[in-house]
Amino acid sequence: MKKVLKGWLIDNSVTTDNKTDKILLLASAGSLTLDDVLEEMYKQDTGLRPETLHHSVTLYHRVLMDLILNGYSVNTGLFRAVPQLTGVIEGGVWNKEKNSIYVSLTQDKALREAIAQTVVEILGEKSNIMYILETEDKKTGLKDGSATAGRNFFVRGAMLKVVGDDESVGVTLTNASKAVTKLTDDLITINNPSSLTLLLPTDLEEGEYTLTVTTQYANSGHMLKSPRRFGSEANPLMAVVIAKVRTRFDKLGKTLFPYRGIVLFLIREQRLPW
């Protein structure tokens, strides 16, 4: 299969002194699950039944996790996985409330070779769009999309400043059950066009959330008459699959309609989720 990544030219919000500096924002081809991957494998005419493929892959996952979480550095050819322990140890005792296990993934030879063969297509220039480039858990310093309840969560991008008098303006957290928690204004501790710092509520339960930013902010000091809305989990601005024990990298998705962004993340836990 030919490997092609497509991207839009956008302003680089980091180099504010250079007004012509551009970066590429990935245009996502979509979000896939394990079942989607298995279906693609089955199309390769392997001669294996779907249930055999599923069993083989799930067995591979289980064995891989067992090895990694027993202290092995595992090189799969596609990636290298290394377990790491984070946090300060007090009194020589492991504290699940303050310490955590983290699995670091780095690309390996097969993936590096595939990257070298990948074509990048520039779709053109987009301006005045809302996008998110990265997030950071200020407690752990991790930029993998994970977050810690009760701690600061940093979001960097463009057109993010939360302003406007429409009742929908603000930052909300939506869990898997579709229950919505709206952050009060005082929990948005830094509110800039290129970045937000959010103090996450202390009572958030662990799990996967959708972070939604809705604003009437526009360039040149203007305000939109009403917030522009677009977005669903099918078209995320940034889709990040996180665990408290991190095993997968984030994936930047399609750009949403200007002035609304969505990012998925999990509140960090201190134990293995499997």
How does this model look, in words?
With 274 residues, this protein is α+β, with helices and mostly antiparallel strands. It has 2 domains: 4-119, HU Protein, Chain A (Irregular), CATH 4.10.520.10; 128-267, Coagulation Factor XIII, Chain A, domain 1. It is 14% helix and 33% strand. The protein is built from 3 helices and 16 strands. The strands form 5 sheets. The chain has a 4-stranded antiparallel sheet with strand order 7-8-12-11, with no helix packed on it. A 4-stranded antiparallel sheet has the order 10-9-13-16, with no helix packed on it. Helix 1 crosses helix 2 (50-68). The two termini are 33 Å apart. The model is unreliable at 229-274 (pLDDT under 50).
